[in-house]
Amino acid sequence: MTTTVRPREPRVSVVIPARNEARNLEIILPMLPAVHEVILVDGNSVDDTIATAQRLMPGITVVQQTRKGKGNALACGFEAVTGDVVVMFDADCSADAAEIPRFVDALVAGADVAKGTRYAPGGGSDDITVIRGLGNKGLNMISNLLLRAKYTDLCYGYNAFWADTLPTVGLLSSTLPQPTDGSMRWGDGFEIETILTCRWSAAGFRITEVPSHEKLRVHGTSNLNAVSDGIRVLTSIMHERRRAREVAARARLAPTPVRARPVVEPVAVLDEEAAA
Q1: Which end of the chain has the least Cβ crowding within 10 Å, N or C?
Q2: What is the CATH number of the domain that holds 97?
Q3: Do 211 and 121 meet the contact criterion of CB atoms below 8 Å apart?
Q4: Element (H, E) at 41
């Protein structure tokens, strides 16, 4: 069996999807720790999002997303990654940059994925309403039942993972064109966090939950709709369950491949709060 050696001091790539977030970038970019690269994925902003980012961080990599939606933006950003570890970071000031080392430490300690959770000790949220909280709880229960998992925060978007896991996840290619009716392709929207979690779980990756505190958006308004996006998340869970079964069925019929086993240089292992 071949092995993939993962470094104890990985190069960290921070991917930030943004659309009209110039005022928030003024706050978050100076707070980021020193990393290998920061990739800003611009969603056709009409303000000075790109100019602001380049002024504050001259070495920032700017990528234009190819369709609409957060899922497509992240896919475009992931394709530009050159580091060992990918950190998904929102541009609305809700993510705490000081938590990035915590996510990276969990990966270096042996996890394939460090999944943020607002519901573990040390985590929390200044933004979850009663309706959103009940919705998240219900979606968590359904996903854990169907995926046979124990996640505490399915829909949270603050996550980090080893870049070598991306080929297994198989996200929708950014090179596909925008649908002619202006709609988004499946996976291009806010359901991306659910799709990633489902595919990480189906792939058998080791997932460690990391406590995280969600802050309030500072400037602008969120594009998230609790009802419509909740329905997309629920649909994603069912879709990904069917997909996982189809992949498993094809795998049973195909010759058994020799799968590379990721190896991290020895360090003290953190307690894992969630397993795929």
Answers
A1: N
A2: 3.90.550.10
A3: yes
A4: strand 37-42
